[in-house]
Design a protein that fits this description.
The chain is α+β, with helices and mostly antiparallel strands and 353 residues long. It contains 9 helices and 19 strands. It has a 6-stranded mixed sheet, sandwiched between helices. It is elongated, with a radius of gyration of 25 Å. 33% of the residues are buried. The chain binds adenosine-5'-diphosphate. The site of adenosine-5'-diphosphate has 11 residues, from β2 and α1.
């Protein structure tokens, strides 16, 4: 097992900085998820940890050893790719054993034992004699993980491993990965663009955008206290509602207290769909937002109502059977304890006193 330390890591292509001065400490045994939109630099970061890309600047330590310029095989890591990268002409057994047979000095009996152990753990023992084209997507993914497991590396790197699977299987595999991590206590760095995977798998998540680290924290911490408007909108589905600062001073003071007067006009407020509720007419006057229902999406266990409030549109989570329909007049109450305030220019979260 090993900690990973990224110190001021940069990756520059000719005219483009893909990763910009990234500092990140992955603790021993941690499940670290790198998450962000396409092109934010997360795969490049993972590939630099793996040694598949040169590091333009900065230092990389794995288990306390400087491996900035070490060859991939000297780093004691194993990587699982989105494409699985299995050898099509080999059986599952050979796919799992091949790397060890070729590159390690281990006795054959030890290799066989490791393949059997990994197969058992991943429940693919009865597939060992099949070839990859005789497997489902989920089974191929297990083989790819098994091939990494048998090497018993210090660090596991996963690059979007579940994105080729359907939604049900993805959810199942998330559970399996979590169990694997708990059972083996291995250090994992996991790349995904899917914020659900990040929220459910990560011990901590590192949210990236434009080659930079935007926020690092436990999933619920990032969800509750996003550091920027970008993080607030990227993490959480459906997305957070963003509203302009109220023009009416009475409303403004009711929501924000005495800070209202000190905030710039382009300040943006943020509330998640579950932080707004349909209120009764008896709610205190300033906390009542009259609105009109535009549309209701009923998802079975819950419903989301798109509601127009003045010039703004907000999405509100409500009970699946809430008696709502388009054009209906409603009254909303915001949960002011959860209200967030963002600088309209920089997007930085501002503290509310
Ligand atoms: P992500 O994994 O977050 O989708 P990547 O790490 O793959 O993003 O890419 C980060 C940025 O670096 C992107 O803007 C991408 O176009 C650029 N990039 C990646 N590989 C190369 C390359 N070989 N040459 C030039 N630019 C690249």
């Amino acid at each position: 097992m090993a900690a990973i330390s990224l110190q001021g890591i940069c990756k520059r292509y000719r005219d483009h900085t893909a990763v910009d001065r990234l500092d990140l400490e992955v603790e021993d045994g941690e499940f670290m998820v790198l998450v962000g939109p396409s092109g934010c630099g997360k795969s490049t970061t993972l590939r630099m940890i793996a040694g598949l890309e040169d590091i333009s600047e900065g230092r990389l330590l794995i288990g306390g050893r400087d491996v900035t310029h070490a060859e991939p095989h000297e780093r004691d890591i194993a990587m699982v790719f989105q494409s699985y990268a299995l050898y099509p002409h080999m059986t599952v057994h050979m796919n799992m054993a091949f790397g060890l047979l070729r590159a390690s000095q281990l006795p054959r009996a030890e290799i066989e034992q490791r393949v059997q152990d990994a197969a058992q753990r991943l429940k693919i023992t009865d597939l060992l004699q099949r070839r990859p084209n005789e497997l489902s997507g989920g089974q191929r993914q297990r083989v790819a993980i098994g091939r990494a497991l048998v090497r018993q590396p210090k660090v596991f790197l996963f690059d979007e491993p579940l994105s080729n699977l359907d939604a049900k299987l993805r959810s199942h595999m998330r559970g399996e990965l979590e169990r694997l991590h708990d059972a083996l206590g291995i250090t994992i760095v996991y790349v995904t663009h899917d914020q659900v995977e990040a929220m459910t798998l990560g011990t901590r998540i590192a949210v990236m955008d434009g080659g930079r680290l935007q926020q690092l924290g436990a999933p619920m911490e990032v969800y509750r206290q996003p550091a920027t408007r970008f993080v607030a909108s990227f993490i959480g589905s459906p997305e957070m509602n963003f509203l302009p600062l109220p023009a009416d001073a009475e409303d403004g003071r009711a929501w924000l207290g005495e800070r209202y007067g000190a905030l710039a006009q382009d300040t943006v407020l943020g509330l998640r769909p579950e932080e707004l509720s349909l209120a009764s007419d008896a709610a205190p006057a300033p906390l009542r937002w009259p609105g009109v229902v535009q549309r209701v999406e009923r998802l079975g266990a819950e419903a989301y109502a798109q509601i127009r409030v003045g010039d703004a549109g907000v999405l509100v989570r409500t009970a699946a059977d809430a008696p709502l329909q388009a054009d209906q007049a409603v009254v909303l109450t915001p949960d002011l304890a959860r209200l967030r305030v963002f600088d309209g220019r920089t997007g930085a979260a501002l503290a509310i006193q």
